[in-house]
Design goal:
Length: 254
């Protein structure tokens, strides 16, 4: 069973939120680890990325680009296949057909964007730092610069750690509320007065709505509790030495 997730009637472009299943890696990376930043065998990661390309585009040799993700608000335009020369950024936008924009996650929120009428797509890696810093808004702005229209952009939120699984400190909440009291909506009481439960996908959906895009769908899948997805927090709690990354990708046909 692949557990790969698609929203074909929503995004209107080739895409998939891939699970960890269907690849060739073993051990803690079992099996579709697409993260070159992991300590997995690079040849296995490359094969997994070819498998991912086949799922998304129907061809193993379809160019698949990803960023050197740094939890920033940086969005870049993709005009060609940059291979292993990955820019330090957390979002990509393109008008060029035939290149897969790939986001790597293991609890953070992958978001795929498409304005099918304008022929512009985007993909963003939104951890709490990036979401707070504006990575989603910068992705949308760059799509507009390439001819997209905000109200015509559709977004899909992929598998990410859910509030019930995301325990944070009271200090973490305080830092958020220092920026905006309205962020209290994304925190609920934790197991004691020192802890809270944080709603990352809720924050992402809120930022997307505030940006005024067309429509938003949410997978509702919790990576921490899912056996079909990699989870950094689960790996940490298990005391494992490393973790795999699942890939979420989108491509314009052509």
């Amino acid at each position: 069973m692949s557990d790969h997730l698609l929203f074909p009637g929503h995004l209107g472009a080739h895409h998939a939120f891939l699970s960890r299943n269907g690849g060739v890696s073993g051990g803690v990376y079992e099996s579709l680890n697409c993260g070159p930043g992991s300590n997995d065998d690079p040849d296995l990661v490359s094969e997994n990325r070819r498998i991912a390309a086949s799922v998304i585009a129907g061809r193993r040799d379809t160019p698949l680009v990803s960023c050197y993700q740094i939890h920033s608000n940086i969005a870049v335009e993709v005009t060609s296949d940059w291979g292993d020369d990955r820019p330090k950024a957390d979002a990509m936008v393109t008008r060029k057909p035939g290149i897969i924009l790939g986001i790597l996650t293991a609890d953070c929120t992958p978001v795929l964007f498409a304005d099918a009428d304008a022929g512009v797509i985007g993909a963003a890696h939104a951890g709490w730092k990036g979401a707070l810093a504006g990575v989603l808004e910068n992705t949308i702005t760059l799509m507009e610069r390439l001819g997209g229209h905000r109200t015509s952009i559709h977004a899909a939120i992929g598998p990410t750690i859910a509030q019930a699984s995301y325990e944070v400190s009271a200090e973490f909440e305080a830092d958020f509320l220092d920026k905006n009291d309205a962020f209290s909506a994304f925190f609920t009481p934790g197991k004691d007065t020192l802890h809270r439960q944080f709603d990352l996908p809720g924050l992402v959906a809120h930022r997307l709505k505030e940006a005024g895009i067309g429509t938003i769908v949410n997978s509702g899948i919790d990576t921490y509790s899912s056996d079909a997805h990699f989870s950094y927090r689960q790996t940490t709690h298990r005391g494992e030495p490393d973790y795999g990354r699942q890939l979420s990708g989108i491509m314009l046909a052509g």
